[in-house]
Amino acid sequence: MLSFLEPMCLAPARKNLLLVTWGLVALSAATPTFAADLAGQPVYTEAPPQPAAAAAAIRDQPAQKVAQPLTIGLESNMVVGLESPAPPIKVENWLRGQPLTSFQSGKVYIVEFWATWCAPCVAALSHLGQLQERYKDSEVEVLGVAASERARTADEARTNLDAWLTEKFSNLNYRIGFDYTGEMNKLWMDPSFSVGIPTSFVVDRDGHIAFIGFPTQLDDVLPKILSGSWRTSDEAKAADTERLKANAEKREMTRKRAH
Hints:
Blueprint: E1 9-10, H1 20-28, H2 34-39, H3 51-60, E2 93-96, E3 108-114, H4 119-134, E4 140-146, H5 154-168, E5 175-178, H6 183-189, E6 196-197, E7 199-203, E8 209-213, H7 218-227, H8 234-258
Parallel strand pairs: 3-4, 4-5
Antiparallel strand pairs: 1-6, 2-5, 3-7, 7-8
Helix pairs in contact: 1-8
């Protein structure tokens, strides 16, 4: 089974997933595809007036009942997980490579969320470049999404990122998109219950999500996705379940440290 204990960086706080920790932990005991189960449930954009009490209520329910409508503080109305349609790409600028407005049928895309201040993210850049070179004849395209840059303004963040890429990775062989609005996080990170970066999403040839996890896991997973043996496998379902459980535990630890 894939490990989800890789080093990662917590992105700046966003308004999301107020009650997801309890919901995910309980659902993980009920079904290996609980992200898909959640996709059919109502999702609300505002937190309840008494989140602590609501969380306790969810915690105390039997696992098999947690798949009923949950109040989830997401700013999107779609849960993103294994087999779900990939969200759109809505970046402000493409700093490297040609603009990408939509996913083309027949191609496999690696969508990598990262930041310059995140050491594990930076370490993954060269590896992703190697994957792009290795699988370019298999219609694989890598695109990095810098959606968590730290700066006072979007212009400052964009300028700093561009200069950083020029200095550190002048020969980068894949696209880099920049988003300071938070839109990409709302579309991808929040609905997938992803806690930190780097986070890799693999979009399969039919435009559906085949994998969410760490870039270090792609060496094992990507060949299976390309062969068509991954998405419907028990291994894929177990990996997605483990990812969500690990992220719920990390989120709970973060919540405890904040109190």
